């Protein structure tokens, strides 16, 4: 240890993210079975033991209005490209709406009605998160689809997004140990997706999609852009380029060739954000420092110079050796040639060496979170 105890813009351009996706996705897409369903949906993704096929609750719009107090402004949690997220309350067994303070808290995401792309993302979210369960993926509880009203109901993540904690004033600073553990949690989530029999590429890894529970355990949210990986001996799938500037891998942006190695690149960017406390893209910093990757890379392969990128808000409270190793790992993840990037299992093996018990986790141990 040391000496003491803009939002990014989304990019999009070419063929549908669903164009060549697997049968389970296509059948849901074409038959529109979710859109017309009033009953509980059971999806049929091939998954392993840690992701049993699960059922989702189909909510009516009135139920969700009632759970989120008519989507009043005091239920507001945040807003993204898809729409607004509200806090709501439901009964933990029946999932019926309850009064605030009764039952369990949920996060209800309401699609902007005019968003066509949002409908596709909504469907992808239901399809993927409806079938995948892992302690480092946010749990999708249910959905609502009544004509143009598309909503999603998630487990509530009490501490919001990693982006908020790293970059927004007035939020609790996160310690070195917590940052390392967040990186490990994210790596576990990605490794789970990459190792599924039908491999899943997450495609939109960034600070705002990493949510933190009461104990600062991290989970991946937003599967709207996720898609199935290549099959057989193919190394990539060809798709239109969607994702977020500053995080998307260069070969993917240039050619639309998507592989799990695109997620590895984005993971490298998130590692840099955790080390430096700087945004992937920050137009307030001037041309030389606008892109975190371009600015940081020259520092990363030198153990001493590397320390110059460290977040000053950590006030030197971090393990030098850990920081140097994680910087070296970030550099590997950020290689231009995807073949030179490590896979997620290798990333995890490196990171696990630096896991440490955290002060935050000790402080908040009275709020146990599900699945840990
Ligand atoms: N399950 C949740 N629990 C608690 N807060 C949440 C949850 N999901 C989202 N939020 C809050 O709502 C905000 C908006 O989330 P949303 O996923 O819609 O957009 P985003 O990730 O910020 O942007 P983008 O549309 O580019 O993904 C998040 O930053 C977070 O603060
Ligand atoms: Mg998001």
Automatic annotation (TrEMBL):
Domain Protein kinase: 71-355
Binding residues for ATP: 110
Matching InterPro entries: Kinase-like_dom_sf (IPR011009), Plant_Ser_Thr_Prot_Kinase (IPR050823), Prot_kinase_dom (IPR000719), Protein_kinase_ATP_BS (IPR017441), Ser-Thr/Tyr_kinase_cat_dom (IPR001245), Ser/Thr_kinase_AS (IPR008271)
Catalyses which reaction(s): L-seryl-[protein] + ATP = O-phospho-L-seryl-[protein] + ADP + H(+); L-threonyl-[protein] + ATP = O-phospho-L-threonyl-[protein] + ADP + H(+)
EC number assigned by the record: 2.7.11.1
Xref: Pfam families: PK_Tyr_Ser-Thr
GO MF, any single term: protein serine/threonine kinase activity
Keywords: ATP-binding, Kinase, Nucleotide-binding, Serine/threonine-protein kinase, Transferase
Source organism, top-level taxon: Eukaryota
Stated family: Belongs to the protein kinase superfamily.
The protein's name in its UniProt record: non-specific serine/threonine protein kinase
């Amino acid at each position: 240890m040391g000496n003491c105890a803009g939002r990014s813009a989304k990019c999009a351009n070419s063929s549908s993210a669903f164009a060549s996706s697997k049968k389970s996705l296509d059948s849901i897409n074409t038959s529109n079975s979710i859109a017309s369903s009033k009953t509980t949906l059971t999806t049929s993704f091939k998954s392993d033991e840690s992701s049993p096929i699960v059922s989702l609750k189909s909510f009516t719009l009135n139920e969700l209005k009632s759970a989120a107090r008519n989507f009043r402004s005091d239920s507001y949690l945040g807003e993204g490209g898809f729409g607004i997220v509200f806090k709501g309350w439901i009964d933990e067994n029946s999932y019926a709406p309850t009064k605030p303070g009764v039952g369990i808290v949920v996060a209800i995401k309401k699609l902007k009605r005019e968003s066509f792309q949002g409908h596709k993302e909504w469907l992808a979210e239901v399809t993927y998160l409806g079938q995948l369960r892992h302690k480092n993926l946010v749990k999708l509880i249910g959905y609502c689809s009544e004509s143009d009203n598309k909503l999603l109901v998630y487990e509530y993540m009490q501490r919001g997004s990693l982006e908020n904690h790293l970059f927004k004033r007035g939020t609790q600073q996160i310690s070195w140990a917590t940052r390392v553990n967040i990186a490990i949690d994210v790596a576990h989530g990605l490794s789970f997706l990459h190792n599924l029999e039908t491999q899943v590429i997450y495609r939109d890894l960034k600070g705002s999609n990493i949510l933190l529970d009461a104990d600062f355990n991290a989970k991946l949210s937003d599967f709207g852009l996720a898609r199935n990986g290549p099959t057989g001996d193919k190394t990539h799938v060809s798709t239109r380029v969607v994702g977020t500037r500053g995080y998307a891998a260069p070969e993917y942006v240039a050619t639309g060739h998507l592989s799990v190695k695109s997620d590895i690149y984005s993971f490298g960017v998130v590692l840099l954000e955790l080390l430096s406390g700087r945004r992937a893209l920050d137009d307030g910093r001037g041309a030389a420092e606008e892109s975190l990757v371009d600015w940081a890379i020259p520092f990363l392969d030198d153990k001493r110079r590397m320390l110059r990128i460290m977040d000053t808000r950590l006030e030197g409270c971090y393990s030098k050796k850990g920081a140097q190793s994680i910087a070296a790992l970030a550099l590997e993840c950020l290689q231009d040639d995807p073949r030179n990037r490590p896979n997620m299992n290798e990333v995890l093996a490196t990171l696990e060496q630096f896991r440490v018990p955290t002060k935050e986790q000790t402080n908040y141990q009275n709020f146990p979170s599900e699945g840990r």
